[in-house]
Amino acid sequence: MRNMNHTPLKPDKALATYRRLRGMPLWRLLAADNGPAVIALLQVHLYENERSLPASIFHERIERELERLRNLGEDWPKTAVHYVADWLSAGYLERRYPPGSREEEYELATATVEAIRFVSGQARPHSAATESRLSLVIGALAQLSSDTDGDKQRRVARLRAEQARIEEEIAAIEGGALQVLPEMAALERTREVIALADGLTGDFRRVRDEFERLNRELRERIMDSDGNRGEVLDALFAGIDLISDSEAGRTFTAFWRLLTDPVQSSTLEEALDQLMSREFVQALVPAERRFLLHMTRALLEQGGKVHEVLQSFARSLKHFVQTREYMEQRRINELLRKAQRAALALKDEVKATDTLHYTLPLTSSRLSSLSQWVLHDPALQALPDRMTDADPVAIDLDTVGELVAQSEIDFRSLGANVRQMLAQHAQASVGDVLGKFPATQGLGSVLGLLALGSRHGLASTATETVAWTGSDEVARSARIPVIYFLRERLHELG
Q1: In whole angstroms, how far apart are CA 29 and each of 96, 399, 435?
Q2: 3-class DSSP state for residue 361?
Q3: How many Å apart are CA 205 and CA 110, to the nearest integer?
Q4: How far apart are CA 231 and CA 229, in angstroms?
Q5: 258 CB contacts (<8 Å, ≥6 apart)?
Q6: Taken in order 323, 328, 333, 334, is the CA torsion positive or negative?
Q7: What is the pTM of this model?
């Protein structure tokens, strides 16, 4: 397909561009001798199901797959750890260390996602020209023409014509002339929607990569600026989020606001629920039905990750400047540049093979053997006297039940309340659940719902106010993070 966004390249410039692209991860992965196997392994374990895996689990699964390939006669002499390290250095994988995690996690690089989507598209190519794709183009152009028209009369005329068409269609349906989209056309249009939604995954990753590039660029500009406060420093000291205010930041913020809008989210959930009840959906392959079923959660998860990266970069950049860390980094860079200049000045006087007669002390750490450790012996802390029986306490079963109810959170009742809410709504926040089912255990009910939401829900960056009445009959309220319970994760609540 010809690129419409740029001026057509001349042969020499095109050659230089493609040679540069030939050395990038996307092209190298597609051209590698073991590329088909690598793409298949990464697609199965980091694309179709989970999008990120802890290092230990990922290594174990790849080792199991390699053993299966060896049994089929393929040559994979190294261990999974070696191959994963190779893929990481080649740019096929990305490695992150999430806050609070005990180990690093692996996920696909943007280039690998593009390679998987390209290969999958070649395995299941589109028809030469489909009615649904043409309808999407025509509808988008018509909407663009209408939205950019500044003539009031023409816009009113188009709206009245659309109103007349809708009224005629209503009259025809009431008269019994109901036209339903044929199954083949419905399947074709559904697959086009799936392809568009799946493409958003690559868009999320590209936006995240753009944030990372912008974060590095801003830090480099701060480091390279002179002693005076430059444009970047002035903006940061003034409290401006340069990353959030960038073009990529504003674009993603607008997209995230649309995705988390209650009206838009409700419309999407309702449309998906109705679509999944149609008979033609059964003709989709299981992977396509699974994608539609989990599309809302996937969009929220991918968008939430990018939103967290955006906020993290903005905060870390402000912290980098406000704590004056950049001044120390600038001093280190200046020392390195001085050392380089001194080395260049001496390169003609001192040869690389000359003995300098200088001893450089290296830093070291004190090591000790595990055999020097002593096991803990609980007997050394035992009390000298024998344990005696305590005096019996006058208490009945009702009192025990009351104490248990006050000390333990009733997760069973809370789970039942959430399930009842999700039976009527596609999603519900903690505040929604408390609005319909008051907190019978006061603060304990609020904490219990937050605990359930952290394990089985989806957290957002917004906040909401919840209220409850304590055992002392005093009304209280608090602001908590908005955590959504989703209908597709209802089975996790037991």
Answers
A1: 21, 68, 53
A2: coil
A3: 6
A4: 7
A5: 264
A6: positive
A7: 0.50
